[in-house]
Write a structure and sequence with these properties.
The protein is an alpha/beta fold. It contains 17 helices and 13 strands. The strands form two sheets. Strands 3-2-1-4-5-6-7 form a seven-stranded parallel β-sheet, sandwiched between helices. Strands 10-9-8-11-12-13 form a six-stranded parallel β-sheet. About 50% of the residues are buried. Bound molecules: uridine-diphosphate-N-acetylglucosamine (UD1).
């Protein structure tokens, strides 16, 4: 019998957990059915500790059935450099000791880039899940993370054809790229039942298709006091047309407090603590409109065909605009775009190719073929 392929799977921040859950679930399922002729995998799950609040981390592990991390690096918050360096310093000895066949990193957060860089220097092979996405906006920390991670990873597992095009344009040979589809949709599909049993609508007195779901946390929207105050003014104006449900990311909460921007949760604007995965899916499926700057919500709203306004100048997920229900908006246009979206007939949009719930299997097949 062939020895198992040793994987080291890294996650650190909230959006990473949805991307590793299907891989861990498939590996465990293969092990449970004792396939002796197929490829077997053994994994170590490393949590970098970039996100540490239970509402940003633990709740996702619990809801998604992800086992306790084998190792937690407790890297925590800090400036971009401090956080990245802390992950690297703590990850290097661990990776050197485990000697995995592959390290699997996902998405575009600081932990993703930090661990990929350590591996490249140690000569350990890295597979990047969600490779090739580009916003072409180097003021975003995530864009720097995407560019660097892809430049040094051995296997680039892409979610959509535009990602392949981006990588080819950067001179990456075809042999390093594989189009596997969107792993977030694996998680979404397998959690639909639980999401539909969520009580979040009842808890925030929201009625199906009669509210807008808001999430905003990007530094470009929340780190500048003047801009953040204008974003909040825009939301108060939209709340006159439709009730808003706004679970607040800790970064946004911290900035509102720091800049002393007054907040009033009322029946038109429900401010909540960050919500879990099932509640978030339930809000996305049932909203009349999503207003966000998150990458994941652009994709999830596309899957549910819920109209989405993305408060950003660009997106690394253009397929959500070309095929899906997403549209970019600006601070100047936010209120009129929202009014228009609320009046328009719901434009259904389409679900992009390979958003089919089978991406984890395609990833494991690629890893096996290259081990
Ligand atoms: C990070 C990712 C971003 C992702 C987001 C999802 C990078 C560069 N950014 O941004 O791509 O969309 O996660 O949430 O990696 N904080 C807490 N508790 C926590 C974590 C953070 O209170 O568990 C607060 C801290 O004050 C921290 C701030 O939030 O300073 C920002 O956290 P950080 O991990 O630096 O970046 P995010 O804005 O969360």
């Amino acid at each position: 019998m062939k020895p198992p392929i040793k994987l080291l799977i890294v996650a650190g921040a909230r959006p990473n957990f949805m991307k590793i859950a299907p891989l861990i679930e498939r590996i465990d399922a293969i092990a449970a059915c004792g396939a002796s002729n197929g490829n077997r995998f053994q994994y170590t799950f490393v949590h970098t500790g970039q996100h540490y609040d239970s509402r940003m981390s633990r709740i996702f592990l619990q809801e998604l059935g992800i086992p306790e991390p084998h190792e937690n690096l407790d890297a925590g918050s800090g400036s971009q450099a401090v956080q990245t360096a802390n992950v690297m310093i703590r990850f290097e000895p661990l990776c050197a000791a485990i000697k995995p066949d592959w390290v699997v990193v996902v998405g575009d957060v600081n932990s993703t880039m930090a661990c990929a860089l350590v591996c490249a220097k140690l000569g350990v092979k890295v597979a990047h899940v969600e490779a090739g996405l580009r916003s072409f906006d180097r003021t975003m920390p995530e864009e720097i993370n995407r560019l660097l991670t892809d430049a040094i990873s051995d296997l680039l597992l892409t979610p959509s054809a535009d990602a392949n095009e981006n990588l080819k344009r950067e001179g990456v040979p075809d042999s390093r790229i594989s189009l596997v589809g969107n792993i977030m949709i694996d998680t979404l599909v397998s959690n639909l039942g639980k999401a539909r049993s969520s009580t979040v609508l009842h808890r925030c007195e929201a009625r199906r298709k009669q509210f807008a779901y808001v999430t905003l946390h990007r530094p470009s929207n929340v780190d500048d006091p003047e801009r953040l105050a204008r974003v909040m003014d825009g939301l108060y104006a939209i709340a006159k047309e439709v009730p808003l449900v706004f679970p607040m990311h800790p970064r946004t909460q911290k900035m509102l407090t720091q800049y002393r921007i007054p907040l009033a949760s009322n029946r038109h604007l429900k401010l909540l603590e960050p919500v879990g995965y099932h509640d978030s899916l339930c809000l996305t499926e049932n909203a009349r409109l999503v207003i966000t700057d998150s990458g994941g919500l652009q994709e999830e709203s596309t899957f549910f065909r819920t109209p989405c306004l993305t408060l950003r100048a660009n997106t690394e997920r253009p397929v959500t605009i070309a095929l899906g229900s997403n549209k970019l908006t600006s601070l100047e246009r936010l209120v009129t775009d929202a009014e228009h979206a609320l009046r328009a007939n719901v434009d259904s949009g389409r679900i992009p190719p390979l958003w089919d719930g089978q991406t984890a299997d395609r990833i494991l097949a690629q890893l096996a073929a290259r081990s």
